[in-house]
Amino acid sequence: MPSEPGTATIRPARPEDVPAIVAMVHELATFEKAPDQCHLTEPQLHTALFDPAPALFGHVAELDGRLAGYALWFLNFSTWEGVHGVYLEDIYVRPEARGTGVGRRLLAELARICVDRGYARLDLQVLHWNPARDVYAGLGFTVQDEWLPYRLTGIPLARLAR
Questions:
Q1: Which residues are catalytically annotated?
Q2: Which H or E run includes 69?
Q3: What is the dihedral of CA 109, 113, 118, 122, to 10 degrees?
Q4: CA–CA separation, 46 and 73 (whole Å)
Q5: Which is nearest to 70 in space by CA: 51, 37, 45, 53?
Q6: Using an 8 Å Cβ cutoff, are 45 and 51 in contact?
Q7: Is 77 in contact with 83 (CB distance < 8 Å)?
Q8: Closest by CA position to 48, among listed 23, 73, 26, 28
Q9: Which contacts of 31-34 are long-range, i.e. CB under 8 A and separated by 24 or more positions?
Q10: Residue 148 has what pLDDT?
Q11: How does DSSP classify residue 53?
């Protein structure tokens, strides 16, 4: 059922959405001042989302017949709670759709998934300079500043693997 003009429809990503999602991932990388670090291809995303046992899930926001945003997420697990949660890897709303509620609707869909499935939490990371931090705080997200993100990649990853 189409939504009213100016109202976003949130739905699970479909295979035909992959080119637009990949384009938006690259737009996000540019927004995050790291376009040279983004190497995602359409075949990679298609495989991640639509393999028989996907580890990545996605939702898109359709606004006036065009994809205006996306959320890519996967399951995490809380050993203390004993249940899964959702880790939001990416959320992006195209500039022309910002301020229309698209981002909020994407987040609300993920919150609904958490509640419906009995998941304990919805996690994400935000760059310290991103103005969307105020939006997340307004929705009730809290900064987890006692935890520091660590990452192992490249040569150190290969070295440890040996």
A1: 136
A2: strand 66-78
A3: -60
A4: 14
A5: 45
A6: no
A7: yes
A8: 73
A9: 31/92, 32/127
A10: 86
A11: S
Query: How many CA within 13 A on the CB side of residue 26?
Result: 11
Token pair recorded at residue 73:
């997420």
- State both tokens at 82: 């004993």
Q: What is the pLDDT of residues 47-76, one digit of tens each?
A: 999 999 999 999 999 999 999 999 999 999
Can you give the pTM of this predicted structure?
A: 0.91
Q: CA nearest 57: which of 120, 19, 14?
A: 14
**CA separation for the pair 72, 60 (Å, rounded):** 9
Amino acid of residue 47: T
How far is the CA of 111 from the CAs of 8, 80, 116, 125, 139, in angstroms? 17, 20, 9, 16, 11
> Do strands 66-78 and 83-93 pair parallel, antiparallel, or not at all (unpaired)?
antiparallel
Q: What pLDDT is attached to residue 1? A: 44
- Give φ, ψ of 10 to 5 degrees: -105, 130
**Domains of the chain, start order:** 9-161 (3.40.630.30)
